[in-house]
Amino acid sequence: MKVSEQFRSVKFKLFVTLCISVFLIIFSLIIVNNVVLESFYTYSKTTKAVEICNKINNFYNGIVSYDIKRELENQEKNNNLDILILDDDLDVIYCSNEEIINAVNVFSYNARTKIIYTKDNIVITAVQENRDNKYLLLSARLDNNYSVYIKIQTGPIKETVNVSNKLLIIIGTLMILISGMVSSVIANKFAKPILELNKITKGMANLDFSQKYRISDAEDEINMLGRNINEMSDKLETTIKRLRLNNTKLEQNIEERSKIDEMRKQFISDVSHELKTPIALIQGYAEGLIENVNSSEESRKFYAEVILDESNKMDQMVKKLLELMKLEYKERQFNDTEFDLIELIKEELKRNTVVLEENNILVEFDNDKRQLVCADQEYIEQVINNYLSNAIKHVKVKDNKKKIIIRTEEIGDKIRLYIYNTGDKIPEEYINKIWGRFYKLDSSRNRSEGGTGIGLALVKAIMNNYNNEYGVKNYDNGVEFYCDINKSKTMGAENLSQL
């Protein structure tokens, strides 16, 4: 913690407050000691002198029999004063010592006197004979006409005040030191939970709600504050989680809407681009028929067949595009069932028997073992058909033969399908591009080879919907495409039973 932060801390403020409080108390006591103590002492001694004077008067009134001398000595001893009693002729009846006689003589001509009490026949005067000698002198006339003088020293009170001030300073210093240590302990006790709460609230400000205040058994304000902060932390965490969830959903909705708009634009762009050629052909041959460019029946039939063929291609392409859009946006519901993958591959090979024979393509597929998978059979059939059509289209003679190899492999809870064809490698820079819609390695897009350029894009979309892997590998003499299909639970159970 920085020095400036320590000075602003509650601990430091509490320490300073306690020390200043002790200092002010001691300082106040010193002021009171200097101002009040002497006046209180004078008042106290004045009251005592009047009381003793009345007692002496009673001694001589004879109401009660006293040993007057002993009583006077007791009063002097107990109250630390001097007594002088004179008769009518001013002869000494009783005298404590010579000092009081001198005091009475000095009093008669000393100007530094001040009457502080007068009542009935009693007068009390404050006399300051010199700097160090200050006293109170009571003079009174008794009922028997005796004169009484009582001298009370007040000079020592100054020394007493000075001594008490020094004692108060010493006590005050010790109290400040003790209070400093005590305040440090108390400040730590009170500041520790406050610092903990401060740390928790700082974390909350940074959206960290993992820290909680440890509630103790004490039912005090700090404990209640900690409990309230914990409740507030929980509520804020829940609220922020909901806000984040709603924000994520909102972002997803916005992203999905953006995707829809992008897909619509892409669809329109792709359809516009791909339909230019067939529309131009249909338009040209249709105009030829209308204008009767060729009058022979065979030529008109050829024109009509071209128009029909191009129309079918357009219909097929639009349907595939719509299907691709639904798959990419994951709007298509899959009807997953269990079926034999090997049997499905064999059926696809049968459909392509004529094409394979016409192109002298050798197919290697020797797998009679059942391999049950769980997926939408229609879409898996499209995947196999697209891979097989792609292999037939790009197969080339290597080692004096054209060859397609189909195989499967069990990988965990998946069955991986491989379809290999001899031919040229796919350049590395095109490996990722071939999965895009309408992308063909031949930039001329020769229509005589057939195909719409959507097949591999459909494979990608289907695999993404199942969260399964797919891809292509280059080999020395050819290319191999692969994809994963979910294994059925029934097949897993059969494998366990065989073990």
Q: What labels would you give this structure?
A:
Heat Shock Protein 90, six-stranded antiparallel β-sheet, 499 residues, alpha+beta, Beta-Lactamase, 58% helix, 3 domains, five-stranded mixed β-sheet
Spans with pLDDT under 50 lasting ≥5 residues?
443-449
Tell me what portion of residues adopts beta-strand conformation: 15-25%
What is the CA-based Rg, rounded?
Answer: 60 Å
User: What's the story with the biggest beta sheet?
Assistant: 6 strands, antiparallel
Major sheet: arrangement of strands: 2-1-6-5-4-3
What this model shows, in words?
By secondary structure, the chain is an alpha+beta fold. It has 3 domains: 74 residues; 119 residues, Beta-Lactamase, CATH 3.30.450; 166 residues, 2-Layer Sandwich (Heat Shock Protein 90), CATH 3.30.565. Helix content is 58%, strand content 17%. It contains 13 helices and 13 strands. A 6-stranded antiparallel sheet has the order 2-1-6-5-4-3, sandwiched between helices. Strand 10 and strand 11 form a beta hairpin. 17% of the residues are buried. About 1% of the residues have low confidence.
